[in-house]
Amino acid sequence: MNRKAIVIGSGIAGIASSIRLALKGYDVAVFESNSYPGGKLSKIDLGDYRFDAGPSLFTLPEQVEELFLMAGKNPKEHFDYLKLPVTCHYFWEDGKKLKAYADLDLFAEEINQQLGEPKSHIKEALINSSYIYDHLAPLFMHKSLHDWKTWTNQHAMKAYLKMGKLGIFSTMNEANEKQFDNPKLIQLFNRYATYNGSNPYETPATLNIIPHLEFNIGAFFPKKGMHDITNSLFQLSLDLGVTYTFNQKVDEIIVEQGKAKGVVLAENKKIEAEIIINNMDMVNAYRTILKKQKQPKLLLNQPKSSSALIFYWGIKRKFEDLDLHNIFFSDNYLEEFDHIFKKGKIYHDPTVYINITSLYKPDDAPEDCMNWFTMINVPNNQGQDWDQLILESKKNIIHKLNRILKTDIEPLIEVEEILDPRTIESKTSSAQGALYGNSSNNKFSAFLRHANYSSKIRNLYFCGGSVHPGGGIPLCLLSAKIMSEMIPDAS
């Protein structure tokens, strides 16, 4: 009889974990409290409009392709995507616009023409981003930080000699102020802190690693939408014999003599397994299914990342100025982040992100219409009056878009659904609705994420955005990879 593995939660890391363990010879069973797989990487249908519900930026597609290759399949036959010619459109209140071209020469020319920034500055910034990636990715993205071998290999030795150049001792904003002259370009590059829910005025400049993924490697779009990442990997896991039970909460992880032995379901039903993998948010997992076990209080009490307020709008008009990714910047970025992280409030002039997949996947909206995934960064849930905040924010967002696009948005909204920190927590078990688990607002934050295994409970492992190496699609997939490499083959 094959050894059994149980995965708690079918977020993208949980699905990837199930694939990797099935390929190691385990009988894998996944238990999911929702009626669908994917966690945040799901979809919403509103009338004739379709929306990707959560993550909207796709980088490092090889992390998805690798799972198909491991299973002996041609990725292109199951999951296809294209590289974006323009990664994002940027807009400011003074009428200034900017296209972030994937072609770096075109991007440098655009920066020079629109902002007067020397072309050399942007190229130097992206060379520096590549430098950080080359030195830190082998450590922080592909290995466990909790394994002594990570810190004694050749990549670690090289990184030790370059600590100053890797941005560990300055903030993202400080590094960008040194790199660029124009405040708008500083703001553009500070935006990358939001990719893991952090504050650019506090998070270390090592996070300037992120532009390398978007510019030097590229941003991509799955031809069937972001939800196809979930669908294709879910189908792959089914093909490998993984079983799923939906609408099924796990009540407890069974631990006996320091070893995880199985799970308890409703009505005290017990399922035994040799390996238990937790894809649930780490904080909520310890508060619920691991509440009888010793609590890692230092990690549980870390400040949480920001959350999001999202309006899914079906818009009865096309806007020629807009692309797949669009950013409408606040006029006071520092004040916006102070509101999010220090005041627990939403700034009256928020930076607005609009994702429009119907431009690349026309059947996501009716003809001559657009599906707007309209998002602002907001504080995590600390008991605020969200109903009032939503009303105020919607009004402020619409006024901002009307000013910049010189239009009247409200009469164009045909359908609407709203996702706020409360519903993010209830749908995805993310503590306080934080999108990325613990925040990265200090230089030690990478070391204040839970390991991909339990140091106290044998055979218990962790994956997903709340543990190492962090949130976002590539890092969640890498968490499954790091975790699975710790687990022996079933045979």
Key attributes of the depicted protein:
15 helices; 19 strands; 491 residues; 19% strand; single chain
Characterize the main sheet.
7 strands, mixed
Helix/strand-derived category reads alpha/beta
Q: Helix count?
A: 15
Strand arrangement in the largest pleated sheet: 7-6-15-16-17-14-18
β-sheet strand percentage: 15-25%
Number of strands: 19
Characterize the overall form. Answer: globular
Write the layout of secondary structure elements.
Elements: E1 4-8, H1 12-23, E2 27-31, E3 43-46, E4 49-52, H2 62-70, E5 81-83, E6 86-91, E7 97-101, H3 104-115, H4 119-141, H5 154-160, H6 172-179, H7 183-190, H8 210-217, E8 220-222, H9 227-239, E9 243-245, E10 252-256, E11 259-264, E12 270-272, E13 275-278, H10 282-287, H11 297-300, E14 307-315, E15 325-328, H12 333-343, E16 352-355, E17 370-378, H13 386-405, E18 413-419, H14 421-428, E19 460-462, H15 473-484
Parallel strand pairs: 1-2, 1-13, 2-9, 6-15, 13-19
Antiparallel strand pairs: 3-4, 5-8, 6-7, 10-11, 11-12, 14-17, 14-18, 15-16, 16-17
Helix pairs in contact: 1-9, 1-15, 3-4, 4-5, 4-8, 6-7
Please give a structural write-up.
The model has no long low-confidence stretch (mean pLDDT 92). The protein has helices at 12-23, 62-70, 104-115, 119-141, 154-160, 172-179, 183-190, 210-217, 227-239, 282-287, 297-300, 333-343, 386-405, 421-428, 473-484, and strands at 4-8, 27-31, 43-46, 49-52, 81-83, 86-91, 97-101, 220-222, 243-245, 252-256, 259-264, 270-272, 275-278, 307-315, 325-328, 352-355, 370-378, 413-419, 460-462. The strands form 5 sheets. It has a 7-stranded mixed β-sheet with strand order 7-6-15-16-17-14-18. The chain has a 5-stranded parallel β-sheet with strand order 9-2-1-13-19, with helices on one face. Strands 10-11-12 form a 3-stranded antiparallel β-sheet, with no helix packed on it. It is globular and about 65 Å long. It is an alpha/beta fold.
